[in-house]
Amino acid sequence: MMNCKEATQLLSQGQERTLTLVERLGLKLHLLICKGCRASERHFDFLRTAARRIGSPEP
Predict the structure, then answer these.
(1) Which residues contact 8 (CB under 8 A, 6 or more apart)?
(2) Mean pLDDT of all residues in 28-57
(3) Of the candidates 40, 29, 39, 24, which has an alpha carbon nearest to the alpha carbon of residue 1?
(4) Taking CA atoms, which of 5, 6, 17, 58 is between 20 and 30 Å from 33?
(5) pLDDT tens by residue, 16-34
(6) Residue 4: helix, strand or coil by DSSP?
(7) Is 11 exposed, middle or buried (0-12, 13-18, 19+ CB in 10 A)?
(8) Distance between alpha carbon 15 and the CA centroid of its chain, in Å?
């Protein structure tokens, strides 16, 4: 079973590259049982969305 440090590393790496099938499955299993890492996933998603909005030109 993956620990929280490994899970957050994969969440971060998943922003930059496509995770392997084994990585995705392990991460999904970990996220099913870990509330803290699910919160980290939401934070990563928020930051990615905010960065896109800042980087995109105004219409």
Answers:
(1) 37, 40
(2) 92
(3) 29
(4) 17
(5) 999 999 999 999 999 999 9
(6) helix
(7) buried
(8) 7
Quick one: which of 40, 37, 42 has its CA closest to 4? 37
Q: Residue 34's domain spans which residues?
A: 4-55
- % of the chain at pLDDT higher than 90: 80
- The string of DSSP codes covering 11-56 is HHHTTTSPPPHHHHHHHHHHHHH-HHHHHHHHHHHHHHHHHHHHHS
Question: Which is nearest to 11 in space by CA: 50, 52, 48?
Answer: 48
The tokens describing 22, both together, are 């084994």
